[in-house]
## 1
Amino acid sequence: MAGRGAYELGTPMAFVTPSTTAEKYDVIVVGSGAGGGQAAYTLTMDGAKVLMIEAGRSYDPRMETPMFNTYDQAPLRGAGTPAKPFGYYDATIDGGWSVPNEPYTSASYEPGREFKWWRARMLGGRTNHWGRHALRNGPYDFKPYSRDGLGFDWPIGYEDVAPYYDKVEMLIGVYGNNNGLENTPDSPDGCLLPPPKARIGELFAAKHGKKINLPVIPLHRAVLTRPLDHKTIPAKLHPGNLRAQKIIAADMQNRAQCFWATACGRGCQIRANYQSTTVHLPPALDTGNLDIVANGMVREVTVDDHGKATGVVYFDKTTGMEHRAQARVVVLAASSAETARILLNSKSNRFPQGVGNSTGFVGKYIMDTVGADWGGQVPALENYASYNEDGAGGGHAYVPWWLYQQQQAGKLGFARGYHIEFGSGKGMPGGAPWVPDDGGRTNFGLKMKEDARRYYGSHFGFSGRGEMIPNDDSFCELDPTVKDKWGIPVLRFHWKWSQHEIRQAAHMQRTFADWIEAMGGKNQKAPDPDGTKAIQPGGFIIHEVGGTIMGGSPKNSVVNPAAQTWDVKNLFVADGGVFVSNADKNPTLTIMALAWRTADGILNQMRKGNL
Amino acid sequence: MPPRMDRRLAIKWMLAAGGAAMLARPRLLAGPDGTAAVPAGKGYGTDPDLMKPYKPGDFWPLTLTDAQRRDTAALCDIIIPAEGSHPSASAVGVTDFIDEWASAPYPDNVRDRPVILDGLAWVAAESQKRYGTSFADATAAQRLELCEVMAPEAAKDSDLHAAAKFFRRIRDLTSSGYFSTPPGMRDLGYVGNVPSATFDGPPADLIARLGLTDDVKW
């Protein structure tokens, strides 16, 4: 077992091997990302003995993050390859759209019907490289069906989750501020850190965005713009639990504030941003209550004759050996699709269609975020004098969805909203700077260099990130024939956008093109008028949620409002699988808030002797 | 890649920015079995040591001949010549980078390899034909003249189509290779990648020149 102070530099984070796990744990948590990390944190801080099983290898960002490396120190100048799709220095290891030995399939490979599944097989999962965008869902986002008759309402509301948003923001550290905008919740005092100043391009876009009524406000991102308040926050996070307060107070002091350099996507050695591996797991390990097995590929949840979960079966990927682990409670946080896969593969006489799947909802209603992008160049920003605008390693500003009224009045032709992420400026050049053609000729020589300097920093890139409505044609199931290296049946995905998403994508590009013009720029082409070319493939935004959705009845869902499976009362889901809708807000903060809430529920039920 | 951007945004920005499209582009190559894309046993694998600085040739052998490398270096230095205190492209290792690029096992590289090799062969032959010598040994005026032949856009049915495509590709690779080095970043005007105690935002004179204020509710 890990002891106090175990999280010392150089200490490997996987503390047990399959042969040294305890006989039995209070809780097994499958997965170590946002959901698994938060669940393990909450459970161990309150004294539960937890075994975390992660399918990838151990990973320590303090030792493995290439913070200041320049691209000329990387193979191919850091370019993306199938082995490192977002570039060599992206924090993801053993991950991407394809993972060796771990296939998946699509029922169709036609455009618009294929689903791309990103995985990161490493401790901390996708939290190591994510954009750190930490937006709260608003009240509308939990009751979408009630507003427009589409999709489903959640069985819980914003007020149920708000206290956990507060806690997560205080724990991980989120910059941003309150603007009082519709369905864009304000945080109580003491939750948010001050936003960094806007960069020049962000100020320019904010001013000229007003011409087309875009509210540009500070983004919320999980980056420390100042140290966490270790004197007052711990008592708010863990009232009455002095030991937990002491552990997290100590750990908060070991996280440095941002030093305004290097991209968050590489990870953060100084622990200034949130990754499960730098924020959730260190204090959880310090409790002495957390064991982690890395390289553990979970195949199924085991269930006894009484219909209770007893633990899991997993493969040690380093040896190929099969192992079993036992616990009073099993929490799946393997990522929404992987959690669905584990449930579907957990077949027994009692649950021939898989655990949790008695009413056939496992794998149903998977959703990604709608994505469409645009770029343009703005002459007013040519040749501005350089200043260091690396900033917080990501965006400082964004546009929340601003057309609620028009949408409610039926004026837009699509039912749900999107927010806008955008960037510009003189960031670290990673490729050839844009230059125009030289009168029908490839621009080269001193003219090309002069143009590269002139246009550097004058481009804007925009990304719309919008809500997808769940539909019957977007789901995953077990492939009838394909298995992975360990003989585990793999997922087969089905995907289809509705007109709501496709029209939304067209609206995104139209808005971006208008914004470029509002800034005095020129668009190099016309936006896609109908959206079918603009919309990104399913899964491409890597916000896939659903598949084990939450509901008020087993007739329409896999888990109840406590994220407990209807089939098996000591089996819970703590990742994005429980999402009933996928608001435009990036899902990670909500995954963490729900995981904290679910873990609190488990602790209460354990104390009452119900589990 | 501008570090402030969301990764996908950065990628799209670069796609929109034309010549930069080759770098950091996500690969969508999962075949029906989802694994077809990664060349097994080649490349750097999915878990390379990110902390270690690499140089071309560390992961896969460089394959250009000495003659091809000499011509490549000469091309690079016409595309990005030395300028004042700024070095030329070949002086900061761009020849090695292009050799590495043309020799790598990944799909973009495999696709670019014939463009580069055929282009170098065309340059060598054309130089012999026109000047009776290799491109690298031709005079500065002759080298520039040949680049001017390759620079104009050329229609698909033009004799110069392949040469024009090659020249555009070499220009993009040279630019990527140069501006990603510390001297190239200085040349371009990138002044980041250094830790600071505070982030002070844009300078006041810049804000004023663009008619902006920073008194928005921030």
Note: Chain B has eight helices and no strands.
## 2
Amino acid sequence: MTARKTRSRRCSPHTLAILAAFAQQPTQWQYGYDLVQLTGLSSGTLYPILMRLGDRGLMESRWKPSPERGRPPRHLYRLSPRGLSFAQLQLGEADYRRSPPLTAAHYA
Amino acid sequence: MNASALAAWLMRRAVQLMPAARCDWAEAMQAEFEALCSEAGSGARALRWASGCLLTCLMERMRSMNMPTRSPLGLSRWILGAEMLIAFGPLTWLFGVVVMLDLRGRAPGEFSALLISATLLGPAGLLLAARIIALPRVAPGRAARWALPGLAAWTLLVYGAHLGRLPSPDWRALMLIAVLPAIAVAHLCVLGARGERSLRPEIRG
């Protein structure tokens, strides 16, 4: 029921921009600041969307220790396999990616 | 205070505001902020980043406080209290004045009871509102729910009749003394009619 609701619901243009940024390099982990630069969104728009995507299990995250001493570890994000399917569905087959869509096997 | 210092100050406030359940997100924002600050000439960008983070953390804080956003009647008790004070305050003040004049024998005898009954809505409304605010789990009695609209109608009738006799009616006074209290009574009635069960989630501390 929830999955059906998720699919039928249309994303906001901001969410689509973030999904597109993730979908361009689906296996690569991205920093929040990189996503801001990729999408042109502000941090005040980006983080609430990332939180929602994380809450819905569409995005996974991990901490990466900073190579510089005294700097806190940074948070990295990428779409989960479910998130990738969701992004494919939302962005549409035509403008999603030029290469064939990735599957969950890429995340293994 | 330059842009970087202001950004750092805003970022600290943002981290403080974020609810505990989301503290890892606040740490993530802070870490990105520090990475951003390490770049040369990043003052304005850092300020934009920190402002956005502050907004996000504030919204998350409000969400964690479970502040209602959907129902127009779902109010915090503070907002409801302010609304009731604005609506019933002037009428309560008028009630006090009339009672004081009556006690000192300065009120016109034939109108004294009429004025007191027409302004009784003020303190009665405030009392019921205070009860709903202080005891949100106890629904107001049926008598209170019926008496208050009756008093509101009476106030409107008396003040309307009085206004009709004036050469230049004071519409602002009508609004303060009769219309606002009537609207507040309607609001209280709707809250009261929802009963004990539905009242509980409506008014929050």
Note: The radius of gyration of chain A is 14 Å.
